[in-house]
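Good day; I would like, with your permission, to put a structural problem before you. What I wish to show you is a protein chain and, alongside it, a tokenised description of its three-dimensional fold. I would ask you to consider whether the tokens describe a fold that such a sequence might reasonably adopt. You will find the record immediately after this paragraph:
***
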Amino acid sequence: MRERGVPRPRADIGSGRGAAGELLVEEARDETLGRTLRVARIAPEQPMDRAPLPALSDVVLLWAGPQGFVLSGFEQIGTAHYAQSWWCRPTD
């Protein structure tokens, strides 16, 4: 729902094709921060493939309803961390 921390236009979010795959949420130790984080990621279709999106760290559930749910957290691109939200919805 954001690109490098900047909100994308609402029309783009609803009409665009998202990253499809298996959503995994787990706890992982971050040695840089010295604590455990809840991390969401989309598993690639093949084990050797690259993940379709950067992992979402410090993830929290913002809302859930009939249209799916939104997870919010931070993604790391290079050395920068950006606010990010994922609208997770069922595929047809």
Summary: The chain has a mean pLDDT of 84.
